[in-house]
Specification:
It is a single chain. The chain is built from 26 helices and no strands. Helix 1 packs antiparallel against helix 12, helix 13 packs antiparallel against helix 14 and helix 14 crosses helix 17.
């Protein structure tokens, strides 16, 4: 599809009559070889960007997670973080796709994402500024050095640096191929007239939009414009509309990423689209004046046309970002009004909310989404656990708190146990997919730890569903309640174990080692408490207290089940602590 479009675009720029060979100026131009050179150069450019992006993401490693964790309600911090993250991954579209996933995963709110979107627009200008430096003569040196480092380096971080150099070299080599292929067009009137036609804002914006939508990289569009400018084939008046169109073309990726997502995630995509559309509308009516401003700046520094294109790209995105930044809260309110919340029933069918295959090529972020899904498992386990004691102390079987019109309490526990099993399988598969990516050593260790955590969580679900719940029927058959003291002790122990499950949710959301250490300590405290309760129960049993004697077996099996949950919580905390110690080493 992309190749077909590139061919169409090429023939759009080059009049058909010229390809037919009827014009004298056409005699020395090999149109087929030119097309191959242009297409090959663009492939090298895109592949180089991809390699450079992979290297930067690997070099950043888990610091990407720390950067994103710094996001607060402070829109200015989010603005800077968005620029930095996009500079690393080399794609504002990819950043927006990530934001859709983060909002869907409830790792950030919609309002927080707006500052990141604006920052992403500035981060993507870094690529254009680098491309504007004419380093094509050094492309082969960068390729050789980068390949050598990638081949010979022993550490993963050093190999990632080699990959950055290799990608950088390939990017500039692609530019050289495109530049050499287009050199004959400098003297071809038909092409020159066509490029001048792009000074018409509507045509230039249309060309930039279509090209970027299919190549899915505004950096590639800007790079092509810069190559044209280096050959003197395009003016700044024609380059600016194409750049504006490139900003519109990036909206397609965000729109596609939002399909099938929740309401807040759709709002992220709408915000991205509105920022770009309104930004283009703010500039489109004064392109001549904007061109003169860029020229006057260029005159101060004796800049080439290629540098002017890069500067126009940067100034446009900075201006749009600063224009919207003070009004983000109003803008968020407007989008929420356009896409209000829908009152819908929570879904009873098991489904994964957070994991997203589109983020797999950024392992640090993919692992964060996996942990968000595991945190959701912990929340489900907490709800199962909270509900599990109610039938033992209530005469009537109550309805489920979250689905009161459709499920009773036991049906709700059964439904959540199915969800736990489903999520365990989905997250495990997702972690295996992450393991196929290029990983740092600590990321591989984290995958192993998370799989162990999954196993323990599934066992907790099994304890509740297959150890505790069957006791409800057995107790009903006996027709006796626990003693007053026994009921109080069981409820108290149940509450303590519930706190451990709540702590697991917090651990998985933030990888908080401090809370993991608390779970670790509390295990021993609760084990001592378990022993104390057993002694007190035994004393009542020896005293032949009727309720205690009748319910003894069920009482002890409940104690065993809660002790097992406490042990599994301890195992999860131990895995997180070990992982943290490995990362420190």
């Amino acid at each position: 599809m992309r190749i077909l479009f590139l061919a169409t675009l090429f023939f759009l720029f080059v009049p058909i009559a010229a390809i037919g060979g009827s014009t004298p100026n056409n005699s020395s131009i090999s149109w087929f070889m030119m097309f191959v050179g242009l297409l090959g150069g663009l492939v090298f450019f895109l592949y180089g960007m991809d390699k450079m992006s992979s290297g930067m993401k690997s070099t950043a490693g888990n610091s990407m997670r720390t950067i994103l964790a710094s996001l607060t309600r402070n829109k200015y911090i989010a603005f800077v973080v968005g620029a930095f993250v996009t500079m690393i991954i080399q794609s504002s579209s990819a950043t927006t796709v990530m934001l859709v996933s983060f909002v869907q995963a409830e790792l950030m709110t919609f309002a927080q994402s707006l500052g990141v979107i604006l920052g992403a627009k500035i981060g993507t200008t870094i690529t254009a500024q680098m491309v504007a430096f004419k380093l094509t003569d050094y492309a082969m040196i960068m390729i050789v050095v980068g390949f050598g480092v990638r081949l010979l380096a022993k550490s993963e971080k050093a190999r990632s640096i080699g990959e950055i150099l290799l990608g950088f070299g390939m990017l500039f080599y692609g530019m050289k191929l495109m530049s050499d292929a287009m050199y004959p067009l400098r003297s071809y009137p038909g092409f020159i007239d066509t490029m001048k036609g792009l000074e018409n804002p509507m045509l230039g914006i249309l060309a930039g939009t279509l090209f970027t939508a299919l190549v899915q990289s505004s950096s590639a569009s800007t790079g092509v414009v810069i190559v044209l400018a280096q050959q003197g084939l395009i003016t700044i008046e024609a380059g600016i509309p194409i750049i504006l169109g490139a900003n519109l073309g990036t909206c397609i990726t965000a729109a596609l990423a939002s399909i099938g997502t929740g309401r807040e995630a759709k709002r992220v995509a709408v915000a991205h689209i509105l920022f770009n559309v309104v930004g283009v509308l703010l500039f489109v009516f004064w392109i001549p004046q904007f061109s003169e401003l860029i020229r006057s700046i260029a005159g101060m520094f004796n800049s080439s046309t290629a540098r002017q294109v890069a500067n126009a790209h940067t100034l446009f995105n900075i201006s749009v970002g600063l224009f919207f930044l003070p009004f983000l809260n109003l803008f968020a309110a407007l989008i929420i009004r356009l896409l209000p919340d829908k009152k819908i029933d929570q879904d009873l069918i098991p489904s994964a909310w957070h994991i997203d295959d589109a983020i797999l090529d950024t392992p640090a972020i993919a692992l964060q989404l996996a942990r968000a899904e595991i945190a959701r498992m912990a929340k489900l386990l907490g709800r199962m656990h909270n509900a599990s004691m109610v039938p033992f102390v209530s005469c009537e079987l109550p309805q489920d708190n979250y689905f009161p019109e459709r499920l009773n309490l036991l049906q709700g526990i059964e439904m959540r146990e199915r969800k736990i099993d489903f999520l365990g399988e989905q997250i495990r598969l997702y972690l295996l997919k992450i393991s196929q990516q290029s990983l740092l050593e600590e990321q591989g260790e984290e995958i192993n730890s998370l799989i162990a955590v999954l196993n323990s969580m599934e066992r907790i679900g099994g304890v509740i569903a297959r150890q505790i719940i069957p006791l409800v029927t057995r107790k009903k058959a006996i027709g006796k309640d626990f003693s007053e003291e026994g009921t109080s002790e069981l409820l108290h122990y149940h509450e303590k174990v519930g706190k451990q499950l709540k702590r697991l949710e917090e651990i998985m959301l933030n990888m908080d080692v401090t809370i993991a250490q608390k779970v670790h300590r509390k295990k021993f405290h609760y084990s001592d408490y378990d022993s104390l309760l057993r002694k007190q129960h035994l004393q009542r049993l020896l005293a032949m207290k009727e309720e205690t004697v009748e319910t003894h077996v069920i009482h002890m099996e409940l104690m065993d089940a809660m002790n097992n949950i406490n042990i599994y919580c301890f195992e999860i905390a131990e895995n997180i602590i070990k992982l943290a110690n490995l990362e420190e080493e």
